[in-house]
Design a protein that fits this description.
By secondary structure, this protein is an alpha/beta fold. It has two domains: about 5-110, ATPase, nucleotide binding domain (Nucleotidyltransferase, domain 5), CATH 3.30.420; about 120-295, Nucleotidyltransferase, domain 5, CATH 3.30.420. It has twelve helices and eleven strands.
Amino acid sequence: MNNPPIAVLDLGTNTFNLLVAASAPQSGLNVLCSAELPVFLGRGIEDGTLAEDAMERGLDALRAHLATVRELGVERIRAIGTSALRNARNRGEFLRRAQAEVSLTVEVVDGDTEAELIMDGVRLAVPFTDRPMLVMDIGGGSIEFILATRHALMWKRSFELGVTRLRARVPFSEPPTWEEELRLAAHLDDRLEPLWAVIERHEPHVLVGSAGSFDSLATMIAQARGGTRPPGALTLGFDDLAFAQLKDGLMRMDRDARSRVPGLPAHRVDHIAYGLVAIDRVLAAGGIRALAWSRFALKEGAAWRVLNGLPFVP
């Protein structure tokens, strides 16, 4: 049966990401191309509107990604909008312009659907067990949490606590102070009470991280070990001590020092501290000692669904 490759565009709050993939008998997904462009569509996100310059950056990124898709000769293209587009009052303007200027239809998904697509992707990269594991996907606008075993998705929820939102709500000094970190921790603790109840009841033993902050974290962990993250690696395991050592070092750095850290992309220098504090709160709440990074997340889950004849959106 002819099953041509598919291109999936993930229109996030901070980055617009491209995946071109084909089906693969063993792994389930053969990645032909993966690219990320910083857009900061959600800059100023807390006022509920997309700025004109942010929309222009987004459209420019779409043009660049679609040029890559054309060069690869891929005809099937799907696009997903997440937190920034979910919540912006003027999202219709951006969606109309995407259709009119680059001939792209963007499907904006709700938080539950985003979590399900993330889980579809993570399962392709990380082996699950009979014991519950907690997935945490950190974006610019939202954080998705999914509790799952190898047999079932047990619970899922999206929280509007992405790193761009957190930075707007609890600004940090350079470097962040201990008092600022405590304020952010309290902000998270107050809003994550449903998650704390799930963790207390089910006691997940591994935190699986995907996207954004976790991509950078995995690269920095690998480099701290004296190597690099293998380009084709689907997962990387590490423990809470390795995480704590990296977090403590980064939280003592100012922006200039962070910008020189190997493995930390320039577009994450301003946001990484917020992701690290969020991860730290989850580890502390569950007494979780083991972590695993997943290379695959939302766009891989969406591609896998289409390539396997399932609806693009669950």
